[in-house]
Amino acid sequence: MTPTQPAARVEILRDTYYGVTVEDPYRWMEDWKGEELQTWLKAQATYTKEYFETLPQREALLKRITELSGADPLLYSLHAAGGRYFYLRRDSNDNLAKLVVRTELDGQEKVLFDPNTLKDEVHSAIDWYTPSRDGKLVAYGISPGGSEDSTLHILEVDSGKILDLAISRTWFGGVSWLEDSRSFVYQRFPDRPADAPPTERFNDACMYLHQLGNDPEKDQAVFGRGVNAGVEIAHEDFPFLILPQNSNWMIGLIMHGDLREITIYAAPRPVLSDPTTCTWTKIVDIEDAVTGYAVHDDTIYLRTHKDAPRYKVIATSLKNPDLTRATEVVPKSEAVIEDIRVAGDYLLTQDLVGGIGRMRRVKLSGGDIEPVPLPFDGTIIEWTNEADSPEVLLEMAAWTVSPRIYRFHVNERTLKDTGWLLPSPIDTSALETHEVQVPAKDGTLVPLSIIHKKGLKLDGNNPTLLTGYGSYGITITPSFRPTMFAWYERGGVYAVAHIRGGGEYGKEWHQAGQMLNKHNTIDDIIACAEYLIAQKYTRPERLAGEGTSGGGIPSGGALVKRPDLWAVMVMRVAVTNTLRFEFTENGPPNIQEFGSVTTGLNDPRVVVWQATKMAARLQAAPTSGKPVLLRVEFQAGHGTGSTRQQFDEELADKLAFLLQQMGVGTSFRKC
Fold first, then answer.
1. Are 225 and 233 in contact (CB under 8 A)?
2. pLDDT number for residue 598
3. Engineered SS bond to 45: which of 168, 330, 379, 632, CB 3.0-4.6 Å?
């Protein structure tokens, strides 16, 4: 029997914003824990699940995607401490990543904590972890159902024993260990009553000092609003206290919501024992345009876009900071400086040039800036080293190159594969990639990456998935996505639009798609869609768009502005209502990105009703005859902490739906 899609109740509410009256027929959904919405959500989820299960290619797709997702181990979140190497690893038989350690580069792996062994009704995942300076202890946070609401635990590396300690409300961890490796500072949020306004959930975070064996409820606040004389911290700010191993200074870092520019204070390390009276010196504030830093002894290196839209690196003294007399260490250039790090006798920069990851080094004592040869053109996913160590672990990948982890000796300028990750057994030789420039509505050239099987006919008949993000200055760089081979094998084209609002060309590119310029993100993805059609990659009947999280703005905007371009629009945990987003839990921090215009069920970043209201409105006003489906994960959030099975099933549902709506048959050939 064909299931019936449940309709949502309509109740018109009117609000006035700056003299403009706005009608909202689904405001009642903002009570997202209410019984009425929960009932409607479950009915929607049941309908959508039954719909997907009838799709002719779903079963075969899921089988193939499961094979592909288990073909290569996933290894990420690298740390080095006490001569040991830590990371998270998910193998083919794992649903979730586990925490492992190597006692040396060529040593054997040891599993420290495996959340797959937990027998709780709802899965719990590792959100973050930080090893102690001597590498003998690890602080880690776990949360249930993808909620990211972490509880802090400690384990002993040698014995594998988990200590009797659980500190709740440690969302972002923020752990920094002291020299004794028995004490650490950490960030914690207040315990709020159930009826507290949702916009206060992430207010008034504070850093606390904990010594193992003490009661965490009696831990001393050491950095936060109202704790430190002369330090300005707003309710909505996120304070962090960092204790660099290679310096006698401590860094008080303040993040202002999702604003990239940070405020930095510094104080002598010994005064941590009396945080209320110690003197903090402000190093930089928002107007100094600093977005990253590195410390060595009494010097702080600052990554700034002030008078340098693609960033430069300057240095000043922590003892006597003076930005007007700062030393320019790495001048501005065509390269976008994405990160900086001290290693051995050098400062390293992680750069982006034309979408390709690059690296440079310059001696701390001064001298020429030298490029570092890398093994292939791709993305530097992450890097790490112990404080001042000349050995850096570097993880790289590309569209058709599976991740590798290299050991880079900065003083010797040598790079060697660690062998921790073998080349993928998936044959990538059948694929080809293209990097093109697409003129946007205003003439701006927008980079577009296109991936597909070799020998693709440009006849306008290829099923194509176009995705874009364009927020927070985040760069979408080449990445290896093995599960997408299930799409390529069916003749699919995958295209990534590097639209304005991202960080591909530095700060100016970000600002060109921010706040009042947000319309550019929508126009850019439309231009990329038109290019794919004009170049005969596809046609509207076989073109799908996709946006995730903040990418819901360009994807949703393109759907409304140009519905004729799309066969399908996929919106994943998407921001769809910026007018009301400000009044959600994660709304206030995002004012810095989207301005102020006064779905996974557990999503702490984009509340579930953003998706439900969008779906309800589209379902109530159909004009195309196409299905409007709301897919709900009841044990997931924004994606962090989701299981491998959840990811695989979601992708199978999506691709099967795309192929059905595009009228694509079942014939395919494995790569």
1. yes
2. 42
3. 632
Question: What is the rounded CA–CA span in Å between residue 37 and residue 359?
Answer: 50
Q: Could you tell me the two tokens for 372?
A: 């570092």
First-residue to last-residue Cα distance in the chain: 38
Q: What pLDDT shows up at residue 623? A: 75
124 vs 118: CA distance, rounded Å: 8
User: 400: how many CB neighbours lie within 10 A of its CB?
Assistant: 18
Q: Tell me how far the alpha carbon of residue 599 is from its chain's centroid.
A: 16
For the beta sheet containing 391-398, the strands, ordered from the edge strand earlier in sequence to the opposite edge, are 379-384, 391-398, 401-409, 414-417
Task: State which H helix or E strand residue 37 sits in.
Answer: helix 35-53
Report CA torsion sign: 591, 592, 593, 596. positive
Contact 269, 248 (CB under 8 A): yes
Residue 287 backbone dihedrals phi, psi, to 5 degrees? -65, -15
Q: Which two tokens stand for residue 249?
A: 């200074």
Which pLDDT score, from 0 to 100, does residue 624 have? Answer: 76
Question: Sign of the C-alpha dihedral, residues 138, 120, 143, 646?
Answer: positive
Measured between alpha carbons, how far is 642 from 633 in angstroms, rounded to an integer? 10
Is the pTM above the cut of 0.85? yes
Return the amino acid letter for 86: F
pLDDT at site 206: 96
Among 411, 298, 304, 407, residue whose Cα is nearest residue 347 = 411
406 alpha carbon, distance to own chain's centre: 23
Cα–Cα distance for residue pair 621/615, rounded to 1 Å = 10
- Considering only CA atoms, give the Rg of the chain: 25
Q: Chunked in runs of 10, what are the mean pLDDT values of the chain (671 residues)? A: 69 61 69 78 87 93 94 95 96 93 93 93 91 97 88 97 97 93 96 84 93 96 92 95 95 93 95 83 97 97 97 97 97 97 97 95 96 96 93 97 97 94 94 97 97 96 96 92 96 97 94 92 97 98 92 89 94 71 62 55 54 75 80 65 83 92 74 55
Residue with tokens 């009642």: 28
> What does the alpha-carbon distance between residue 74 and residue 642 come to, in Å, rounded to a whole number?
14
Residue 36 in tokens: 């009425």
Judge residue 363's burial from the number of C-beta atoms within 10 Å of its C-beta, 0-12 exposed, 13-18 middle, 19 or more buried.
middle
Task: Identify residue 445 by its one-letter amino acid code.
Answer: L
Give the closest residue to 426 by CA, choosing from 151, 148, 105, 68.
Answer: 68
Q: Who's near 269: CB < 8 A, 6+ residues apart?
A: 243, 247, 248, 249, 250
User: DSSP assignment, residue 1?
Assistant: -
As a whole number of angstroms, the distance between CA 398 and CA 379 comes to: 6
How many CB atoms neighbour CB 231 within 10 A? 20
Report d(CA 320, CA 563) in Å as an integer.
Answer: 58
Q: How far apart are alpha carbons 215 and 211 in whole angstroms?
A: 9
Structure token pair of residue 68 = 């592909």
Q: Can you give the length of the chain in residues? A: 671
The residue type of 610 is Q
Contact 553, 561 (CB under 8 A): no
Q: Which of 628, 571, 567, 640 is nearest to 602 (CA)?
A: 640
Collapse the DSSP code of 271 into the 3-class scheme (helix H, G, I; strand E, B; otherwise coil) and give the result: helix
